[in-house]
Write a structure and sequence with these properties.
The structure holds two protein chains of two kinds.
Chain A (H helix, E strand, L loop, with lengths): L2 E9 L5 H15 L7 E7 L12 H9 L14 E6 L4 H12 L7 E6 L15 E8 L4 E9 L8 E4 L2 E4 L11 E2 L3 E4 L5 H12 L4 E8 L5 E8 L1
Parallel strand pairs in A: 2-3, 2-4, 10-11
Antiparallel strand pairs in A: 1-5, 1-6, 4-5, 6-12, 7-8, 9-10, 11-12
Helix pairs in contact in A: 1-2
Chain B lengths: L4 E10 L3 E4 H4 L11 H5 L3 E4 L6 H16 L6 E6 L11 E4 L2 H9 L4 E6 L4 H14 L5 E8 L3 H7 L18 E10 L4 E3 L3 E2 L7 E5 L6 E5 L1 H19 L3 H5 L3 E4 L4 H15 L18 H11 L8 E8 L3 E8 L8
Parallel strand pairs in B: 4-6, 4-7, 13-14
Antiparallel strand pairs in B: 1-8, 2-3, 7-8, 9-15, 10-15, 11-12, 14-15
Helix pairs in contact in B: 3-4, 7-9
The chains are: A alpha+beta, B alpha+beta.
Amino acid sequence: MVGIIAWKAKPIGKQSLLTSLKKIVKSLCLENNLNINDIGLIIHTGTFRQNFRAEPAFATHLQKSLKIGLGMVTNSSEHVFSFDLMDGNAGPHQAIEAAIDFLPDLNSKYALITAGDVKPNKKTKWSHKPISFACIISKTGRIEFLKSEFDYSTQNDYKCESKGWNIYENIDDDAKNKVHNISDNHFNSSSEWLAGEQMEKFFSWAENKTGELIHTINDRSGRKSTVYWKVH
Amino acid sequence: MSEKFSQITAFSSYLPPNKKLSEDTVPFGTLPQKIDFKRLTGIVSHHEVIPNQGAIELAVEASKLALERSKVPVEEIDLVISCSVSRMSYESVNLVDPCLASQICTRLNIKARNFDITNACLGMVTGLMIADQKIKAGKIRNALIVSGEHLTPIIEEALSRNLLWNHKAIASLTVGDAGGAYVISQSEKERIKFFEPLTLAQHCDLCIGESAKDRLGPAMRTSAKKLQYAALDNLGEYMKRCFNNPEDLKSHNHIIPHQTTPKAVLRGAKIIDSIWGLGDRVHSISHSGNTASTSHTVTLDKLLTEKKLKNDDKVYFISFGSGLGMLGISLNLPKEIEAW
């Protein structure tokens, strides 16, 4: 039953992304009686980073701030592996599946997935109000991951580029792109939300449900990702 | 159900035609205290993009050759992962979204699932590991792991500074532009093995690459000596963890570390030599600079051109990336590379 043991999300507010996610992960572990040192993999996903940072991965900064796996390599030392994965709004789906694929090779119990974005710079015009999200994945998760489907056959001409501190987005602001189709067991969200908010909205909706649930994320680029879950 | 394995069916690199000699890029007198850049690093030259080439174009050029070598039709590529540090176009536009992999797929007419990885110079080997896991899980048949590193704007940025006061910019002078690609596919036998990946995140602030604060384009600041020692101090123990039996490492024909500078590779080779006596199997290149995540593909292609690689040769990759990430891979080269 590989899946999600616990999750938590909060608006980033005026904090840095690092502070926001550090607090969320620490309280997530505390509230769910999870030993933070049992995390062996961190994958962060998101689109916008402070100063458009290209290296190192944001996940390495998070690992340092959580103080896990920081020793020298010895014959018995325990370590953490951290990297970032990006796929627009659908990043969390790809990251969760990547973590699940990693689990058989991990010596540790848990993988940590975080999603979140931040206004790149004070000078950048940026209209998003992002949500920071974190979840813990294990071989025995309450929210079981069943399978994923990625329909990347159609792609529109959406582009987000930055030059200096300026961001240019040719987003299609049509109201139809902000409609979420939610039925009893299918949460089909529009491209309106960034990655962290996509996950926060879905898991809040799924929290009091049981059985098989479908989560579809429509990315701004026209691509579509779907994950099938079973809530026990 | 039979166990599934993966293998590298092709690799390739692309160096843009604009070759720059170190003495022209960093003439004597540029570095403080009359330090000669070429003597300090061992880098003889690097390559830079020509007009209209950026991260995507470099990646696409390398991918075309890898796909041709692999003989895998694009219809059978089920996953594309772009792993570059740089997301820069030729005009220093940062390509934020959609992911670079999707744009590379469009150029190559590949209709596959795709995403980007950011893990500094460890990016391509991280991408290979993810693809290997998906192949073993039976989720995909073939994957294209690709990277285009348009890094040289950071040379220009560093040269615009007073390097006496901005010594952390000096490492920026060591980079070069390149593209790299692997095709990884299903295999009946184990032909690639990934050792424990790890991140020594206590060192994550030693190398930061991001948008420059007061000019267009990127900048990188590196505590080069500290980063190098952090890597070298852990290299021996990491490799001992990879190889319980020393004979396992001795079965490799080539050892290819991440190519920061030839001088740094030499220091790593001395450590390997002191423990296993295999320093002469460690390869270093001096013609391309540090091409970040593509450095293993550039080294392999150089060795191929020099006819130093044989069909089915066994290679050990030891990768480092700022963060500080480490990952070792043992792999058999494709069985027909001598015909490439």
